Amino acid sequence: QQQVKQSPQSLIVQKGGISIINCAYENTAFDYFPWYQQFPGKGPALLIAIRPDVSEKKEGRFTISFNKSAKQFSLHIMDSQPGDSATYFCAASRRTNAGKSTFGDGTTLTVKP
Amino acid sequence: KAGVTQTPRYLIKTRGQQVTLSCSPISGHRSVSWYQQTPGQGLQFLFEYFSETQRNKGNFPGRFSGRQFSNSRSEMNVSTLELGDSALYLCASSPRGGHGSPDTQYFGPGTRLTVL
Predict the structure, then answer these.
(1) Cβ separation of A103 and B109 shorter than 8 Å?
(2) Longest dimension (CA), chain B
């Protein structure tokens, strides 16, 4: 049973545009929602994370929006740059058990110059 | 600080063989988690070790096992390899593994295992 569903599978955006990736979860016990960025040949790296007691968190050009009632969260990348081209994964875990994360299937983002 | 290191980076084995992968966490980190990454299944949680004890286990068959040493280094072993075990195996470390508060997981570059 897939507990975190991520969409779209791939995304092409023009430089300067907004990239939006969505995730939905099923397990209401999840209370920690990180996003990871992965470049080819590298392991995933934490980009930004949110807890369900806030509806939005912004770090630079990256923003997480969180909708607890809908059990959905999304990543917005403003002013997308070619260097943002990578695979993005959403994940969910329990804060007291963050060593066990459930990941979405990933979104391959391509930002065209 | 040095990041998470994994050895070897690439490995080719044949069906039926066994393999051992190694992970050295960031100095001071006590939690080590292992994930399997495949194009079709994404990142799947294998297990987590904290202070030499397996704290969590994913839904993988018993052919997948692991252990953690007193210096927090971890190994995972896959016995009787199958073609479907071909994947990128990722190790992630964190200071406390989220015990009491969320911790950032730092991933290594992975070991690419190919089973022929």
Answers:
(1) no
(2) 43
Task: Give me the tens of pLDDT residue by residue for chain B, a chain 116 residues long.
Answer: 689 999 999 999 999 999 999 999 999 999 999 999 998 778 999 999 999 999 999 999 999 999 999 999 999 999 999 999 999 999 999 887 666 566 788 999 999 999 99
C-beta separation of B29 from B114 below 8 A: no
If you ran DSSP here, which 8-state letter would residue B58 be given?
-
The answer to whether B89 and B65 have CB atoms below 8 angstroms apart is no
- Structure letter (DSSP) for residue B101: S
**Integer Cα distance of A52 and A92 in angstroms:** 11
Strand B111-115 versus strand B10-13 pairing type: parallel
Question: What DSSP assignment string belongs to A50-102?
Answer: E-TT-SEEEETTEEEEEETTTTEEEEEESS--GGG-EEEEEEEB-GGGTTS-E
d(CA A99, CA A50): 16
Decide: A44 and A36 in contact? Cβ < 8 Å: yes
Q: Is B42 on the interface with A (CB under 8 A)?
A: yes
Look up residue B18 and give its amino acid.
Q
- Tracing tokens 């990543």 back to the chain, one arrives at A75
Of B33, B50, B98, the CB nearest to A96: B98
Q: Token pair for residue B105?
A: 């997981």
